[in-house]
Amino acid sequence: MARTIAILGGTGPEGSGLAKRLARAGEHIVIGSREASRAKETAQQLRDTGGNAVQIEGAENAAAAAQCEIAILTLPFSGQAPLLKQLKSVWKPGTIVIDTTVPLAATLGGSPTRMIGVWQGSAAEAAAELLPAGISIAAAFHNLGAELLAGDASVDCDVLVCSDDENAKKLTMELAAKIPGVRALNGGKLENARIVESITALLIGLNIRYKVHSAGVRFTGLPAN
Asked: Which CATH superfamily is domain 4-210 in?
C-alpha cells in the first residue's frame, strides 16, 4: 500500500516536480497549499500529465499534513517558520519531515546566488526547532533543479541526505532513489545541511553564467547504489 506523502508548499515548481516524480514511482501524494483550491488545481494538472495511474490530490497545508506519514517542505525560507508554527499541533506521531528549504537572499528581495545567515546554522536546523517531540527531520533534495524535475528525462544528480535520525535518513534516501537517475548519498548529521543548502546558491550562479537550467552535483570515487 502506498504511503501518503504531503508536499507542503507544493504548488511551486520544486514541489510539483517532486510530486510528479514520486507519484510516478507509486507514492500517494497530497499537494499542500495555503489555498485548497490552488492545491487541487495543481493536483489536477499533474494527474492530467501523469496518467491515470498516479495518485495525486490537493488540500490546504494543515489538512495535507494531518493525513501524511511523510511531509516534504518545498517553500521559500520566509514561509518556513510561519507554516511550521501553524502545523505544530497537526502532525501525527512518528511523521517524518523532509526539508528542502534553502535560505536564499532572493526570498527577501536579494540576490538568488547569496545565502541568508541562519543563526541555527541551516534552514533544516531552524525547522527542527519548530517541530514537536516525536517528529523526525531530514534535509534533502536541495540541489535538484525544478526544471529537471518537471521534465521526463533521467535526472543527472546526486542527492545528499542529512539527518540525526537514522530511520528518517534511510527512508529519505529510499525516496530519492525512486527518481530515475538520482543517487542518494548519506550526508551525515543534520548540521551538514548548512553545507548542502549553500551548494544550491552556487548551482544557481552556474546556471546563470552558463545559461542553462540543469546544473547539478555528482560525487566521484563512491560506490554506486
From this structure: NAD(P)-binding Rossmann-like Domain (3.40.50.720)
